[in-house]
Amino acid sequence: MTPRRRVLLAALVSVVLLGGAVAYVLVAGHRGDRPAVAAAAVDAGPGDRVLFRSTAAAGYGRVGTVARGSGSGARQLSDLDCVRVYAAAGRGICLRPDGPLTTYQLAVVDASLRVQDTYPLVGVPNRARVSPSGNVLAFTVFVTGDSYNGGRFSTRAGTINLATRETADSLELFSVVRDGKPYRAVDVNYWGVTFLDDRHFYATLSTAGKRYLVAGDLTTQSVRTLAENVECPSLSPDRTRIAFKEAIRGDPAKGWRLTVLDLATMRRTPLAETRGVDDQAAWYDDHTVMYAVRRGSRGADVWSVPADGSGAPHLLIPDAESPAALWN
């Protein structure tokens, strides 16, 4: 243990329901005691490359890059293993296993994919995001044990501002305005944070059997609902549209359709991709959405599709998932 050990983030939230109390810790962090491990000549800084997690048999789970427009070409793989990865402005987030047990951690990495800091996570990684400046990281994990949920999986989402050291341990602590009125409920659940800037974000809020797109403010610790039936949002580089998963006919049991929402008009455009897609869709550019499609339990490929509903899906990067366009 280094003498400079410091606790940056610890959340202990008690939820009282029917006279009982359920306590859980979301994330507790300290600067990693392990030395930084150099990646194998991989540049994750701004540039014409796509960052991804490899699902190929050789190098499974390792983070790599491919040149823009050359998704099927030569890839550069690092020594960094992640379950989820994302990067922006020369800083990355890696959600990865932490030791031999079923535990995980959030690793902060630099433009060379060297680990700079680590935070233990409680829950199974689902999604990772970085604000456009590279200053704020967001995570979503799956957890169990919520008394209102009958032992089924719930999600937890939080943020870490690396510039100010401010944290949002769980978005469930934020105040909510639903349909213009203050709202409180024990079953409020969040996932899928996507950033407008270091302060403002969008995410999915679930409560009372409905799923909403919310606009959030990290400074005031508040959110407000914008639209129903929006899951796993991803903000476009020009900040005008949200790519998301829309439950077919409002019922997740029927599957989801990749869709784009215009934030000015609230008009929805279903995209040409009709298969089930991964929760971490991202924008390739202002005209194209990219996303992973699973192949069995371990395989996946990154595909792309026009954001205006035209065209057809195109294989972008084989044997890959968790894409991030490093030029955005």
Kindly summarize this structure in a few lines.
With 328 residues, this protein is mostly beta strands. It has strands at residues 7-17, 20-30, 49-54, 62-67, 75-81, 84-88, 91-97, 104-109, 115-121, 124-130, 136-143, 154-161, 167-168, 175-178, 181-183, 189-195, 200-207, 210-217, 222-228, 231-235, 241-247, 256-262, 268-270, 282-285, 288-295, 299-306, 314-317, 320-325. Helices cover 0% and strands 55% of the residues.
Helix and strand topology:
Blueprint: E1 7-17, E2 20-30, E3 49-54, E4 62-67, E5 75-81, E6 84-88, E7 91-97, E8 104-109, E9 115-121, E10 124-130, E11 136-143, E12 154-161, E13 167-168, E14 175-178, E15 181-183, E16 189-195, E17 200-207, E18 210-217, E19 222-228, E20 231-235, E21 241-247, E22 256-262, E23 268-270, E24 282-285, E25 288-295, E26 299-306, E27 314-317, E28 320-325
Parallel strand pairs: 14-19
Antiparallel strand pairs: 1-2, 2-9, 3-4, 3-28, 4-5, 6-7, 7-8, 8-9, 10-11, 11-12, 12-13, 14-15, 16-17, 17-18, 18-19, 20-21, 21-22, 22-23, 24-25, 25-26, 26-27
Care to describe what's here?
- This protein has a single domain, classed as TolB, C-terminal domain (Neuraminidase, 6 Propeller), CATH 2.120.10.30.
- The protein has 328 residues and is mainly β.
- The protein is globular.
- Residues 1-39 have low confidence and may be disordered.
- A hairpin with a 6-residue loop joins strand 7 (91-97) and strand 8 (104-109).
- It is built from no helices and 28 strands.
- The strands form six sheets. The chain has a six-stranded antiparallel beta sheet with strand order 1-2-9-8-7-6, with no helix packed on it.
